[in-house]
Specification:
This is Multidrug export protein MepA. With 460 residues, the protein is mainly α. The chain contains 18 helices and no strands.
Length: 460
Amino acid sequence: MSKEKDILGTESIGKLLIKYSIPAIIGMMVNALYNVVDRMFIGNIPGVGPMAITGLGVTLPIMTILVAFGTLIGVGATTKVSIKLGEGKRDDAEKIIGNSFTLTIILSIVITVFGLLFLNNILTMFGASENTIVYAKDYMIVILAGTIFNMFSSIFGNIVRGDGNPKLSAVIMSVGCITNIILDAVFIFVFNMGIQGAAIATVIAQAISTILGLMYYLRGKSNVKFKKENLKLYKSSVTGILIIGVSPFAMQLATSIVQLIYNFSLKTYGGDLAIGAMATVNSISMMFVMPAFGFVQAMQPIVGYNYGAKRYDRAKKTLKISLIAATIVFIAGYLLTQFTPEMLVGVFNKDPELMGLTINGLRKYTLAMPVIGISIVGTYYIQSTGKAKMSMLLSLLRQVIILIPLIAILPRFFGVNGAWFAQPIADVIASVVTGVVLFNEVRRYSKIEEDELIEEVKVA
């Protein structure tokens, strides 16, 4: 067993979370900035900013689908590798790494071909109008062509961190983000390439992150080694990745479905600009949600390893600290969105009509932000213990089972405000249910430990 992995079972939980969470948070914030920075620059393109950012808003469900597939493989592989190492099965862990590369290549090719062939139909289905489809299409042609870099950059962010090198994971993503910011400014404002320039900048940045991640494994610097023979797909490895990864995949896919339904609801009750408002609201919310995902990604290898090793006290302590940290971030986000929305929204666009729509939506959309840490951290904790079905149910609860009916019903009575209120109501209900599931899960550990102690006494 490597020294790094053994530390997961022995070092102070607080120190481990600091060590893993800071790079993970940086990584998640950097990942979010890819899209957020694009929206900032695009929203400020002279003369076309409001319509351009609305066109970008139409693409949000598609971008989320790409993230979903990256999450499916990245989180699935990372969690499964941690569990296998905790069980002392290094060969199985190495097979999972190799198989994750092969799955990424296959999925990327399928997504690129399908997306480019049916792009017009997809954009129309996702809410593009005659005024916005030109911007959405210009952006997505480039993004879809670079799908393989999108997915690999996302996956390396997960597996390099799970390999025991969270600092390198953050560096890889930070280099990509900085590149994206610089190229955005150059392509949009120097070369006047508009929204297509933003997409090209994003793909180049993701390609650089992909190259850095590949170098880490191909040069043999990783703790869990990459071996060519493990590129061959093994049923057990593929199944393990997909079973664990399906929960966060479902959560991201559900987010895409919700974004699609939101687009139609907002367009119906608020017009094209309401979709642009949601693009900004989504960006601002993401800047507070991403740190929470950084906490849970740091939590996952620690929980996975200690749960696999039956060190339940360490798993519980990791959960507690992660919940507290995420809640603090969300309370800060709530205060900023409620009391300084003009400052946050003004970064994306200065158009008076669009700003008014966005500020109104932001305040309502984030009303339940202080409690959603329970839902997010709890769902990923359950996933980290290998309970894929329950984790997926909790994921879908917040994003589909409760939210979609609310989006469909509330606007009929409250207009566009009903769409904004749907999210906080769903957040509160989902957090209560997740809290109950977490309580029962943690309480179960005491019974397991008692039973094991009885068995030891009988054997003695």
